[in-house]
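User: Reviewer 2 asked us to show a designed sequence for the structure in our supplementary figure. I'm pasting the structure tokens here. Could you produce the per-position amino acids so we can include them in the response letter?
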């Protein structure tokens, strides 16, 4: 039984006890008072009547008339005249009780009043004895009426008391519900905080839980910071802070092997010419400062991610990857300004920065792409200015000729509905955790992957419409195969759209059984506003049994402390950290640290982009809970 029910029962029992006790005391007191008054009345009336009869002639007819006259007033139950030997001379008795007082009440009260007696004199001798008993009907009626009035007042007082108790209980229940919800969140490893209630006992509990949540947040922040420091020590160049060559090549291979929107972009390679000569001119420390300035200037060109994909390939070569960048001509002025800032930082030296810009796509191979970069860089080195930039334009095949055609085609394709691909996510026992189901759209008479159409969907702000179509398609698939669990992607634009969230909640509330089989995944590029929107989305859909995850999580993901109260079910590690993990102790260390941190919050860790069994076995030894990718097959 709940505490609130116990409290209500206690209040009702207290009111009933007060009513019954007060009623019993009132009835007992009134009955005692009435008995005392009737006893006195019996004695007085018997004495008065006996005195009147003592003064009359002792004619039996006259005495009988006097008794009858007295009895007929209606206030007596019986009047009996006995002679000196106790024989009845005159007797008058009333019929049984007449009135509307219930019999159970009369039997409960049951007055016990002695009969009033008096002696009748005839001169100096005793003529007889008069016995008189007053009528109790009026006393019963008076007491019954008194009890009804008392009950009425108690009902009124009880109603008022219950109304006040309702307000008080509600005041206790609301903070108690928050405390209970917080306790459930903590048991589910969601360390939320609540407003401290005014009730002393509940406030102490809430304070203790809030302190626990704050300590967990602090612990997560510290562990995330340690993990980030470890990652930087293992993956970054200590002089410039750029990624080392192996890590950057892994990121490049991961992007080229994916089919999402980030698989298309621009690559910028900068070579600091005559680095040894610059070192002699400026000194070792100043040269290192120049290289750090170059890395910071190039990293500032990336605006779509928290951390730029910039690496140091060797002593003098730096490579910057700009996913989602499409127009080299738009990048060129910004790049020239960044390079000019670097050369201006060392005016006393002849700083020459040869630069190449090449576009990359998901169907490119890493070797030819780097060869194109080297060729362009050689052209840039042959120039005479301090910042020569060679640009390799590529003929980009497009499905449609202009923006209007793209918009029309995308609108029609979304209305017709997407197609879902199925990629299993398995655990160490080769059991399916869920299926990744990226969307395909029918464009130009063929089913196209996300890397083809997502940039255009983003440009036309069609993400909510596409995501809603994907969810509806997933529900249809689940209706046909209810034993499956499907993971679908939601864009950040969709979770930030209040109308989309409301429509999604209403759609899933109509099919709660199928909704519990859905896993919603959002990209790791979350802003503070997006985290708030994700928290609201999870609160709205978690009661339906939906699960939530973060995908494409790289080693630089440091938002876990901000997401500890969201209620994530899993986190998918980006394939750039997975590629070649079986031969990289550094990657194993980072993934193991991420898994340990996530497991402390009850979050599963899933590896993306696994390409062979060696990677898969190494990942499960590292501590991940699941894996997906080209190398994952169901046995």
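Assistant: Here is a per-position design you can include in the supplement:
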């Amino acid at each position: 039984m709940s505490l609130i029910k116990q409290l209500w029962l206690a209040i009702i029992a207290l009111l009933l006890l007060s009513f019954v006790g007060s009623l019993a005391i009132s009835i007992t007191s009134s009955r005692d008072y009435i008995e005392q008054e009737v006893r006195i009345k019996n004695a007085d009336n018997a004495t008065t009547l006996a005195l009147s009869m003592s003064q009359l002639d002792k004619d039996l007819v006259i005495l009988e008339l006097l008794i009858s006259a007295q009895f007929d007033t209606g206030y007596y139950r019986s009047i009996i005249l006995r002679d000196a030997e106790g024989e009845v001379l005159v007797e008058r008795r009333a019929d049984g009780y007449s009135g509307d007082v219930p019999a159970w009440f009369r039997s409960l009260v049951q007055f016990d009043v002695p009969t009033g007696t008096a002696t009748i004199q005839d001169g100096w001798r005793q003529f007889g004895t008069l016995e008189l008993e007053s009528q109790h009907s009026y006393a019963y009626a008076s007491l019954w009426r008194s009890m009804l009035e008392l009950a009425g007042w108690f009902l009124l007082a009880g109603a008022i008391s219950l109304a006040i108790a309702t307000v008080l209980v509600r005041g206790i229940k609301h903070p108690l519900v928050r405390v209970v919800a917080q306790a459930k969140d903590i048991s589910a490893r969601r360390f939320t905080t609540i407003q401290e209630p005014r009730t002393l006992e509940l406030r102490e509990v809430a304070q203790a839980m809030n302190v626990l949540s704050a300590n967990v947040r602090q612990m997560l922040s510290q562990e995330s910071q340690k993990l980030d420091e470890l990652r930087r020590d293992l993956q970054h160049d200590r002089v410039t802070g750029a990624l080392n060559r192996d890590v950057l090549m892994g990121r490049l291979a991961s992007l080229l092997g994916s089919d999402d929107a980030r698989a298309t972009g621009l690559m910028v390679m900068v070579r600091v010419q005559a680095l040894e000569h610059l070192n002699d001119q400026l000194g070792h420390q100043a040269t290192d400062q120049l290289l750090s300035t170059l890395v910071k200037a190039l990293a500032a060109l990336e605006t779509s991610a928290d951390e730029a994909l910039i690496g140091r390939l060797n002593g003098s070569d730096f490579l910057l990857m700009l996913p989602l960048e499409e127009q080299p001509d738009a990048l060129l002025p910004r790049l020239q300004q960044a390079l000019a800032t670097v050369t201006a930082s060392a005016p006393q030296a002849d700083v020459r920065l040869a630069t190449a810009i090449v576009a990359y796509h998901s169907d490119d191979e890493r070797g030819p792409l780097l060869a194109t970069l080297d060729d362009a860089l050689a052209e840039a080195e042959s120039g005479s200015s301090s910042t020569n930039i060679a640009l390799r334009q590529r003929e980009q095949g497009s499905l449609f000729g202009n923006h209007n055609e793209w918009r029309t085609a995308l609108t029609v394709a979304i209305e017709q509905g997407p197609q879902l691909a199925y990629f299993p996510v398995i655990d160490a026992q080769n059991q399916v955790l869920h299926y990744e189901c990226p969307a395909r759209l029918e464009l130009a008479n063929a089913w196209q992957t996300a890397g083809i159409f997502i940039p255009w969907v983003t440009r036309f702000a069609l993400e909510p419409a596409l995501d809603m179509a994907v969810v509806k398609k997933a529900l249809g698939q689940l209706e046909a195969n209810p034993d499956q669990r499907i993971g679908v992607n939601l864009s950040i634009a969709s979770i930030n759209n209040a109308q989309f969230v409301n429509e999604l909640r209403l759609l899933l509330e109509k099919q709660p059984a199928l909704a519990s089989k859905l896993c919603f995944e959002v990209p790791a590029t979350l802003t503070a506003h997006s985290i708030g929107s994700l928290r609201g989305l999870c609160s709205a859909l978690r009661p339906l049994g939906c699960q939530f995850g973060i995908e494409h999580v790289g080693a630089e993901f440091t938002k876990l402390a901000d997401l500890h109260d969201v209620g994530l079910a899993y986190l998918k590690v980006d394939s750039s950290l997975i590629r070649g993990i079986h031969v990289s102790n550094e990657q194993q260390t980072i993934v193991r640290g991420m898994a340990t941190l996530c497991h402390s919050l009850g979050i599963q860790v899933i590896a993306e982009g696994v390409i062979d069994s060696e990677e898969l076995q190494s990942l499960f030894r590292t501590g991940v809970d699941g894996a997906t990718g080209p190398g994952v097959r169901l046995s």
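For the response letter, you might also mention the following. Residues 51 and 418 are 115 Å apart (CA to CA). The mean pLDDT is 82.
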